[in-house]
Write a structure and sequence with these properties.
By secondary structure, the chain is mainly α. The chain is built from three helices and no strands.
Length: about 60
């Protein structure tokens, strides 16, 4: 396993994410790892500007950006 980093997020944001994604992810850390891996996939580079803009807007709304 590689080294880990700490990321600071508000309790309110974490609680909302845990509540919304509890059925799919065991923790906020697992959710964030999934989202970041998905964005870093080679396929993500092939997204058109509109799709990328929509993803960035949604992540901003969720407080991740």
């Amino acid at each position: 396993m590689s080294d880990l980093r700490n990321v600071r997020l508000s309790d309110e944001l974490c609680a909302a994410a845990e509540k919304k994604f509890a059925a799919r992810f065991k923790s906020v850390e697992e959710l964030l790892e999934f989202v970041l891996q998905d964005l870093l996939r080679e396929d993500a580079a092939q997204l058109d500007e509109k799709e990328l803009g929509m993803i960035e807007k949604r992540l901003r709304e969720l407080g991740y950006l």
